[in-house]
Give the backbone structure.
Amino acid sequence: MVIKRPADIKAREITDKKLVLSRRTFLRGAAVAGSVVATAGLYNGLLAPPRKVRPSEPLPRELVAHTPAAAPTPGDVKNKYEEITNYNNFYELSTDKYEVAEVAAKFVTRPWTVAVFGLCQRPRVFDVGDLFRRFPLEERVYRLRCVEGWSMVIPWNGFPLRKLLDEVQPLASAKFVSLKTLFDPARMPNQRDEVLPWPYVEGLRLDEAMHPLTILAGGLYGETLPPQNGAPLRLVVPWKYGFKSGKSIVAIELTDSQPRTTWNLYSPDEYGFYSNVNPDVPHPRWSQATERRIGELGKRPTRLFNGYGAEVAHLYAGMDLKKHF
């Protein structure tokens, strides 16, 4: 059995509330029960709670695109609303996946602006409500695969990120996009703890950001995006692990160099910049070969690029996907 010193414990290794008496006590140094392999197994075995949540407000009709809803891939069934909104990774609010919805209950998302700047011809600050009116929200049913080994199928309502980037006209020198989450410890109480370096920053190569599958979501299931899922605006990149999809975004910067992203800075041997779903590249502490769909008991094989290879594999032609993980 491997016993870790408190200084060795990574944030992603934190065990959920159902498995320990106190998350804060654990973070302050309680010993990890079981081996690293067992810890990964606990993550893989977690199921969403059965409790109900208060529904969000329906999206106004004028904000919803009149396009056919994207259908799930055969064999995929949409997760229930309660599953999607009761089991969340959002470390700014809590490291306990079951607690995020409760902490987020009074999170205020209006007014809200998003600054888009950097290597572009027309840097601007957008009101998020104006964005939704300008770019009606399409339904996109995407698989979400998290690095801990669980997955969901979520009907997002969003618009392609490229539409927003086209508004600011990226310069030829722009090669990457950096996205930053709100930093406000009064509204995001877990930012008072040094769980991660805040604010949360994620990034994409520009061609990834401009890909039609990459969206900014403002809703799910035809309702406004709940705070625990990243309201009012979050990134969704379905072929990458979930932590790449930054939540509650306030700033988007176009740069000529690869952004220094939060998880890659925190533990670069565990969280690569690209973080494409790849069953052949194990996390140092557990395998990525299988996944457990929330709401199911059995495991299923993990698919390269989360099953979106036909659409995105060309972006990585010639790249060593184990080196650039």
